Amino acid sequence: MSAGWLGRRLFLTLAMAWIVATIVFLALHMVPGDPAELLLSTSGAMPDPATVQELREKLGLDQPLMVQYGRFLAGLARGDLGTSLVDDYPVIQEIALRLPRTLELILAGTLIALVVGVPAGVYAAVHRGGAFDRVASWITALLLAVPVFVVGTLLVLLFAQTLRLMPAGGFTPFAQDPGQHLKLLALPAIAIAKGLAAVLFRMTRAATLDALAHDYVRTARAKGLSPRRTLVVHVLRNALNPVVTVLGLQMGTLLGGTVLVEYVFNWPGLSTPLLRAVEGRDYPMVVGIILTISVLFLLINLLVELLHAAIDPRVQHG
Amino acid sequence: MKRRGIKKLILPGAVVAAILLIAIAAPLLPLPDPIRQDVARRLAGPMPGSWLGRDEFGRDVLSRLVWGARTSLSVAFVSALFAGLVGITLGLIGGWARSWGAFLTVRSVEIIMCFPPVLLALLVVTLLGPGAGTLILVLSVLYVPGFARVTYAEVLAVKGRDYVEATRALGATQSHLLFRTVLPNIAGPLLVQFSLAVAAAVVIESGLSFLGLGVVPPAPSWGLMIRGARSTMEQAPLLLLWPCAVLTLTILAMNLLCDALRDVLDPRTSER
């Protein structure tokens, strides 16, 4: 990997993070009316002027816009995201506590999707038109159609309510009881994995079919390479690239899905404080969590591009 | 156009058309009021006049399913329409003006894609409060970049073609060229994009309503029905299954319709 290319990518990610932060900052000011009044008017009733003034001062809304923006960016640079309007708790501490749990869920979901989707896609492509291929194609279409919260809710109904095999949701720290921790992780991770697994299956299948049709595959077979070796060395290496691209493209959906899945299974990640904050119009908390997840999204995409470049050196020159 | 592609359109097309018809005809159908509560008959099973039973507030489930379709689909269609209007305009300008125009129009709206969609939606809900209006605004914003991108790419591809040059040589004005010559020729991929946006909007609308941050109760919405039925899933699992099934069927039919439309209208991206 050339240093120049890497530097450009890093710079681009940083620039995008800055733009995202700026948009989130400006959002409050783009809404017509007084922001402090807006945040306090929950039920349509006019809020008390003294409370509005207090909030205005607390959020620094009485300062000129550029000063507010400067303070916001300076705060971000220090890792200070302000405090919750509800209980004055520092937003960054709430995020530090819960982000690892959300990350764990995302990682587990992605792993399940990769382990299921990629081999199934290769198998379906190699045995194109066979029974597995046809059945898997239908299952994929169905999985792509079921919204993630429906899958989650149905998993609860089936495994927790009806079969009573799994707990309906909750969380136990790994250090306290590893077995119970993994048991509670399983259903939400499967729910999150379903869409990604379906997309990965489709993409792997298409990319493998595409690679199989190339001349170099015929050459490899002609020079006496075994079918298995041809598949692993020649086909998969070339099929992997579009699969990695799709992995990056799907991460936005996956991160959004996490919010829903955590809600369904009471998984104490970032979703709980986010939803509570959206309902209570706790603006600093909403901004902090949305910024965190959006930056995570950017970082995952950076990672995907690095992976891309590692698999296919042409990427850096394209 | 391929014969096979057209055949693939029929079944999902018919299902989507049926759902649309039912949603449009909801006020004409002999259904009970979807928001009238009847606590005495809460969680009642199927009975004449109420074929799918009553929900946790004694409201008619079938009626709520039908009216829920109306809510979901109207929100999705209106948002996709707004997104299309704005996105296509930006894409046309960008594709026609090139470099700076493209930067100002297409590249600038792509910033929206830096956010995971549900999170951008939650940010706007915080500011404007939940409701159908907020949903339409958010979903429109979310799908503008898609339309802008597709339009931009298509305009670039079509722009240099002979028939465009010929029309220009005949003395057509810029706007005539753009709206009468280029736009009709790129309508296929734009229609595909529209159907994709509607399907995606249904998913996000139901998700936000499920979280209690989309359609405001007591208005009927599939997401809200699933949310409500969660608490009674032990006594009345069917109450949960009905909206799940209808929502999934709708999205499945829409997805299949999108794929078939793409095969027919957008030959370059269709599978071999």
Task: Explain how this protein is built.
The complex is a heterodimer of chains A (318) and B (272). Chain A contains twelve helices and no strands. Chain A is globular. Chain A is mostly helical and 318 residues long. Chain A has helices spanning 3-30, 35-40, 49-58, 65-78, 91-126, 131-145, 148-162, 178-212, 215-222, 227-265, 271-280, 283-311. With 272 residues, chain B is mainly alpha-helical. Chain B contains ten helices and no strands. Chain B has helices at residues 3-25, 61-97, 99-109, 117-128, 132-159, 162-169, 174-185, 187-210, 222-230, 237-265. In chain B, helix 4 crosses helix 5, helix 8 packs parallel to helix 9 (222-230) and helix 9 runs antiparallel to helix 10. The two termini of chain B are 14 Å apart. The A-B interface holds A 16, 19-20, 23-24, 27-28, 31, 38, 42, 141-142, 144-150, 153-154, 156-157, 161-162, 206, 251-253, 255-257, 259-260, 263, 274-275, 277-279, 281, 283, 286-287, 290, 293-294, 297-298 and B 111, 113-120, 122-129, 203, 206-207, 210-213, 223, 226, 230, 233-234, 237, 240-241, 244, 247-249, 251-252, 255-256, 271.
